[in-house]
């Protein structure tokens, strides 16, 4: 079994036409190939390298991570002598991935990384999540290395980035007992001591994933007398300094192998990342976008696992003399599960490609001046990444919950029993629409792109892309959905974009646009490979119904209706 080789969709997205451009930029037109045996000589060589590494990830995911997942769920981590000790299976997973060189995948070779673009790295995250969504948090927090690479001093980068490849774990310590989604309220104090030339941290952090990690990125209040985001800076804490108390590990519903801790910083020495006062405004926002991309991969991976569990069970389980997959109520559920996964996976890799482009351009800009065309492309890619990321996080996490729910439904009563994997998948899925920004916060992030027309402009770009003649009827159906979307927005605009009514309708507008975007993306995929045509048709049919429902609601909504919802 191999979780990469058994999924043709991953190879399909790895060969997307835009990958040529991404790889050439990432490899700086292959300048390292003359003096580094690990560096690719051309695009084909790079794709071959990604393919081989993803095969290793797929093998480990299927034959190590997935095998350990059930025991990890039962055992969980514990605190021993003020240190978090992983479950035995988690430790085996970590060692297997470390020994395979799968930490620091996206870092430059200079820091012992593989110099992979985001697309193959996100694929690895999806594969790992399919095996064990809880372990995906531990492995996936190597994203913190990207923040260090982008914003830290060269001295910090040279000291800490090579450690990632050696298996040093990471975490981001952001939230506090009174500062969850509202990070502007962070109170943990950072004080600079001139005599020691050192920052020290004091305070409490709560709900910290992989909280006792070796390398911790900490958001703290560095400016006396401030109470908002402008007084926050970002710091690196080294666990080897032994200045943090692990107060407890939270007892969670799911992803039990991933320790979520409450931490007390006791005059902990720390290194400033980047500039003071930019902790939340710049660095955490960048990190959170990466984390939301990671949750997108985690959601798609878990959904894939749930779908395959349901499909296999439906083929084997017989009722009334035939396998239950032959009952329309069951195969309809399975068909929509498959279509939702295809839709969100297409959105996942569309977002990843935009992230690849703008981050690579940003890295190049530190080596040389970008051309006017490159600067324009970077700004465009970043804008697209910024607007696609909340859409991805919203839909992928909500769909993963729906698919995990339907997986249990296909199993019937057996799905409610602990001996079936779908019960664990259902519990693991629930956090996806909560952490790294709830679904409601993703709407807040996305609605501005409705208001400024950025989503609509992107839709027009999809409409300009060529497709086969036989697919034109599908595009025409999407065009009609766009007309309904314009009516939805026009009706909502009448209430005023700063009104409570507009905010109330925001999720419906964002969801309507999301349905159209995913329909277009699957249409483009079907144009490249007819394997996606079935899912494309199902998603378009579902989207038509959802947008019609939204339009009816919005057109009949009155401001006084808000009182009906006021508890």
Number of helices: 18
Radius of gyration: 24 Å
End-to-end CA span = 52 Å
Secondary structure class reads alpha+beta
Number of strands: 11
Helix content: 55-70%
Query: Which ranges are low-confidence, i.e. pLDDT below 50, for 5 or more consecutive residues?
Result: none
What is the N-to-C order of secondary-structure elements (H for helix, E for strand)? Answer: HHHEEHHHHHEEEEEEEHEEHHHHHHHHH
Explain how this protein is built.
With 567 residues, the chain is α+β, with helices and mostly antiparallel strands. Helix content is 58%, strand content 11%. Strands 3, 4, 5, 6, 7, 8 and 9 form a 7-stranded mixed beta sheet that branches. Helix 9 packs parallel to helix 11 and helix 9 packs antiparallel against helix 12.
Summarize the structure.
The chain has 567 residues and is an alpha+beta fold. It has helices spanning 8-14, 18-26, 43-75, 88-99, 118-131, 133-140, 143-151, 154-165, 279-316, 328-365, 372-411, 421-429, 439-451, 454-463, 472-493, 500-528, 533-555, 562-565; strands spanning 78-80, 83-85, 170-173, 189-193, 198-209, 215-221, 232-238, 244-249, 260-273, 318-319, 322-323. Helix content is 58%, strand content 11%.
